[in-house]
Design goal:
With 38 residues, the protein is mostly helical. It is 34% helix and 0% strand. The chain has one helix and no strands. The N and C termini lie far apart (27 Å).
Length: 38
Amino acid sequence: MSEEKEAPTKEDVPAHSTEEEKERLKDFNKDGIPPGSS
């Protein structure tokens, strides 16, 4: 776990960062509300 969270870069995305996650992030960005910001 520490290895993946060592340095999460755009080129080295974690395993949980799949296409679905990217799509979700895109939806969040569309609304202008970043994930984790309530």
